[in-house]
Amino acid sequence: MKVLVAVGSKYGATREVARRIADELRERGFEVDLQDACDVQGVHYYEAVVLGSAVYGGLWRRDASYLVKEHLAELKAKDVWLFSVGMETVVEPGQPLDEADGFARDIDAHDHARFPGALDWDKLNVGEKALIKVLNPPKGDFRDFTAVREWAAGVADQLESIAAQ
After folding, report:
1. For the chain, what is the mean pLDDT?
2. Residue numbers in the chain where pLDDT is lower than 50
3. Residue 55's closest CA among 15, 12, 22, 9?
């Protein structure tokens, strides 16, 4: 089964999460293409898609959002999993849906996972640093690669089940 893992990442932290997901799927025997969302020419080549993005203010990066919007009909007809990476990964009960939750609903995704991200002060530009000073989020690398691997293993289990049908 051919699987696309596509990602919207600005500084590379989310791309590393996507790489770990792709590695887990490959280890389980799937043919996997890992691509930046902006480089994806089409999803019709793939039987399944895992799509993720860094999250800023509840929004995915534009390239990942565009990929969903541009290929919405095709994605609805495929097996799709979504993941979001960012400092705002915890959703409280009653909190409004963010953009990715809407995408998951629109394409009937199997799952939308949220993973904590990383904030590297040295990589930010002047405008981003000014905003970060105001918001004062925790700085550092909070990615949980054990949770990422476990989630990817669950995706692989579901893909194996789908392939056996």
Report:
1. 89
2. 89-91
3. 9
